[in-house]
Amino acid sequence: MALLEIENLVVEFATASGPFRAVDGVSLSVEQREVLAIVGESGSGKSVSMLAVMGLLPWTAKVTADRMVFAGTDLLKLSDAERRKMVGKDMAMIFQEPMASLNPCFTVGFQIEEVLRVHMGMDRTQRRARAIELLKQVGIPDPEQRLSSFPHQMSGGQCQRVMIAIAIACNPKLLIADEPTTALDVTIQKQILDLLMRLQAEHGMGLIMITHNMGVVAETADRVIVQYKGRKMEEADVLSLFERPKSNYTKALLSALPENATGDRLPTIADYVTEEAPAEGAVQ
Amino acid sequence: MADTTAIESISLDPSRRARLAEFWYYFSENRGAVIGLWIFVALVVIALLAPLIAPHLPYAQYRDATLLPPFWQDGGRAAFPLGTDAVGRDMLSRLLFGARYSLFIGVFVTTIALVGGIIIGVIAGYFGGWIDTVIMRVMDVILAFPSLLLALVLVAVLGPGLTNAMIAIALVLQPHFVRLTRAAVMSEKGREYVTAARVAGAGPLRLMFRTILPNCMAPLIVQATLSFSNAILDAAALGFLGMGAQPPTPEWGTMLAEAREFILRAWWVVTFPGLAILITVLAINLMGDGLRDALDPKLKRS
Amino acid sequence: MTEKVLEARNIVRDYHVGGGIFGKSRTLRAVKGVGFSVEKGKTLAIVGESGCGKSTLARIITLIDAPTEGELFIEGKKVDIARERLTPEMRQKVQIIFQNPYGSLNPRQKIGDVLGEPLLINTNKSAAERRDLAMNMLLKVGLEAKHFNRYPHMFSGGQRQRIAIARALMLNPSLLVLDEPVSALDLSVQAQVLNLLADLQDEFKLTYVFISHDLSVVKYISDDVMVMYYGEAVEYGSRDAVFSNPQHDYTKTLFAATPRADVASIKARLAKKAA
């Protein structure tokens, strides 16, 4: 049985100029121990669909789906309180801006222990021990000292490690990483990706990797979904996606990579997909 | 070789209208703000048309009709709908003419405070360093005084009168504009479009007033509306204390001061000017709230 | 012999940090004696991670900030903005394009005015001439005449970057400093902007200093590459030399960390995972 199953997800935002459809009929599933990458450019609805699963969208958003099942629980039938219990425990998320995702007013230790207190009900000594263990797991040196640091005393990479520690604190079944390395330098990106892959293997988590970077996809994913303007363009395992892309949009994305450049100029999306008919290359 | 017909056909600007529509969308979401706006518009109309709609002259004294109550009370006359004061002047006419004074005070004081505050604030924010330090310490000193007290002192130095009162109030309100402008300029100064303008060769004056300042206007407009009501309130207070407009000017605060001794015998001589001040200030503050919602992007909901 | 448009010798830049009322001020050396030169029509890429001093260097080359030490030559003429005022002619020779297309355009300025402003400040051309030149440039960077009177917020990131490029070219500069010009853009838009930059370089014989952290872009666009690490140039050479045979450890680390999106490395990874 799949860990997360979504069928025909639609997210609409009410804006000053009428409803805006950010996600338009996306279906996906993630197995246990699987790394699924969702690739797309800005405005493709890749983050919004995952925020919808987490129930983290603002009230202006209208979420509908035919099916949304996580680990045997129907997310559509959950009350807000029940969903809050699940989010952060069985299903955790990390974000793009590590500095902005941590509360600057509290120490790192406090923020890790807060999760443990809310979801696991541990007492003070247990929490502290677990927090140190978590920081060790995510590769932060001197974890005992670091517990009393504030986010601004750490680098971006370290903050992202702390975010990961908070996310895996309750041994989630599914981790959603929303552009986890976009704000980081290449060398730090490599470390964070390695860390995520190691933790995913060790804990046997499902991992959804949202990214716009084809390199990150190639380095991490088992299976890939390509999204464009709120729609799913293609779904394939990672090797066949790069070897034999089916949709025109995927072909365009791959050929726009500077490292794949053959001629003097790069081919652009417009050479493959016309603006008016973006769904032309849609499959499935 | 540029296609001139193309240029002409594009000179119509669609975005200004769209912006106005967006502004109105956010402004009109705030019910109180819309009510405030309508009251304010009504006040402006009253002030402009005061000579036409007032039943009497504001200075005309009817010796046979002193301290008459409003028309709905016993002894009231229909000729004086809101009664008369101690020397037989029509309350309604005086209130209608008073709207002129209040609005004039608001406009005058806000303009002086705004212009002065913007110039000083932009200089402080743009140059920074010791210039900034000196300016801001002076502003801190002004802010450290209770505003009415400082205005009183200034009027005492300059001599009582409406003009001096307005100058005093403008001086007292100015530091708020200075601080606001400085903060906005400092945050905008580091933005890349400012550097880009510098690379294009723009000098400091152009950078300060053409490039940076237009992007700092939203909070200033909001502060200006709030200062508008503050100015009216302070001017009324100074008038009440005998330091602002002098009798027989039909200024609302001065009217209150004149009516003080009749407060127990004739409630209407104090209540109506008081109400006029209250409604005006409330309407402008409500409008200011709406403006802040509409102009401050941080408060905008998606 | 080809003409050197830009030459920098031993550029050093110090920052003073702290030093409030009580704190003692410290000196931070952001750029530690960097030298390089670029020939006309060529592209020098400066690569490095955040905090390596590449943006500080960009501001020095663009004549926004003065270097603490060192000499800067533009088209063979020595420029020292700390000592003497920058002449308008010099100002026009170097222009910059920033990373964030959302921050680099004045939100209260119409596109036509954005493009006309450099001419208004530096030349005494009439309003009609300025408008014609701006319109030509707008069309040249791939935008349309109807965009002339719009405000920046009505454009996408890629379009804004085109506008920024157009503005930089209004004064016919010989050197263009590109500070991470495509790293805020989507992949497909990145390709379009890179193509535009290549077209413009061919047409106007422009010289580029291209600052980036993205090695794949650098490999695609540059002629020479300089790798910076903590304010020092640890590697400097032709593109082929640097990419085929990196000397410094940091350069090697950087190359190893760059994710690879080719089929062979995916196969290798999957094989390793299965094992």
From TrEMBL, chain A:
Membrane topology: Peripheral membrane protein
The keyword ATP-binding appears for this protein: yes
Pfam families associated with the record: ABC_tran
Primary subcellular site in the record, as a coarse category: membrane
Keyword Cell membrane (UniProt): yes
Localization (cell): Cell inner membrane
Keywords: ATP-binding, Cell membrane, Membrane, Nucleotide-binding, Transport
Gene Ontology cellular component annotations, sorted alphabetically: plasma membrane
Domain ABC transporter: 4-254
Molecular function via GO: ATP binding; ATP hydrolysis activity
Protein name in UniProt: ABC transporter ATP-binding protein
Originating species: Allomesorhizobium camelthorni
From TrEMBL, chain B:
Predominant subcellular localization, coarse grouping: membrane
Gene Ontology terms: biological process: protein transport
Keyword match Glycoprotein: no
Membrane topology per record: Multi-pass membrane protein
InterPro entries per record: BP-dependent_transpt_permease, MetI-like, MetI-like_sf, OppC_N
Assigned keywords, A-Z: Cell membrane, Membrane, Peptide transport, Protein transport, Transmembrane, Transmembrane helix, Transport
PROSITE patterns: ABC_TM1 (PS50928)
Matching Pfam families: BPD_transp_1, OppC_N
Protein location: Cell membrane
Domain spans labelled ABC transmembrane type-1: 99-288
MF-aspect GO terms: dipeptide transmembrane transporter activity
GO CC terms, sorted: plasma membrane
Spans through the membrane: 33-54, 101-128, 148-173, 216-242, 262-284
Signal peptide extent: none
Family that this chain belongs to: Belongs to the binding-protein-dependent transport system permease family.
Protein's recorded name: ABC transporter permease subunit
Automatic annotation (TrEMBL), chain C:
Protein name, UniProt field: Dipeptide ABC transporter ATP-binding protein
GO BP annotations listed: peptide transport; transmembrane transport
Keywords: ATP-binding, Nucleotide-binding, Transport
Natural source organism: Allomesorhizobium camelthorni
Sequence ranges assigned to domain ABC transporter in this UniProt record: 6-255
UniProt cross-references to NCBIfam families, sorted A to Z: PRK11308.1 (NF008453)
UniProt subcellular location: Cell inner membrane
SUPFAM superfamilies xrefs: P-loop containing nucleoside triphosphate hydrolases (SSF52540)
Tagged with keyword Nucleotide-binding: yes
Species classification: Bacteria, Pseudomonadati, Pseudomonadota, Alphaproteobacteria, Hyphomicrobiales
Highest taxon of source: Bacteria
